[in-house]
Design a protein that fits this description.
By secondary structure, the chain is α+β, with helices and mostly antiparallel strands. The protein is built from three helices and five strands; from the N terminus they run βαβαβαββ.
C-alpha cells in the first residue's frame, strides 16, 4: 500500500497551491480502477476556490464548501468513494450557491503518481 495524501482546504486563495499542469488516471467505476489508484502514490487537494476570496457563511453553521463536502460524505451509499467523486458531488452546488469555484488536482512536484484517496463506507469496513 502506498501513502495517499488528500488535502481539503476551505480557505481564501487555497487554489493557489495548484501550479503547473498535472494529469490524473481517468475515473472508472470498477474494482480494477480502485485497486490501481489505491496502489499508487497520491498527493492531491480539493480546495474551496481558486486564487480568490471564498465565503465563510453558508448553511447549518458551515461555509458553503464545507456544507456540501459533509453532505456528499454523509449521503454517499457506495462502498468506495474516491476524491474525484467527492469533487464531482460538490463542484456544481458550490459554484451555483456561491461566488467561488472549487478545484481538485494533484499537487505538482510532490511525488504524485496518479493514485486517489478512497473513502470506504464505515459499515463496509471489516
Amino acid at each position: 500500500m502506498q501513502i495517499i495524501t488528500l488535502l481539503i482546504s476551505d480557505a481564501c486563495f487555497s487554489g493557489d497551491i495548484f501550479r503547473g499542469k498535472t494529469v490524473s488516471i481517468p475515473f472508472e467505476d470498477s474494482e480494477r480502477y480502485y485497486n490501481t489508484v489505491h496502489n499508487k502514490i497520491s498527493r492531491s487537494a480539493i480546495t474551496s476556490g481558486g486564487n480568490e476570496p471564498v465565503m465563510d457563511g453558508g448553511r447549518e453553521g458551515h461555509s458553503v464548501f464545507a456544507y456540501y463536502v459533509l453532505k456528499a460524505l454523509q449521503t454517499n451509499d457506495r462502498k468506495f468513494f474516491d476524491a474525484s467523486q467527492l469533487y464531482g458531488a460538490i463542484k456544481i452546488p458550490v459554484i451555483n450557491n456561491s461566488e467561488q469555484s472549487p478545484k481538485f488536482e494533484p499537487i505538482k512536484n510532490t511525488g504524485d503518481e496518479g493514485g486517489q484517496f478512497i473513502f470506504i463506507r464505515k459499515e463496509d469496513i471489516e
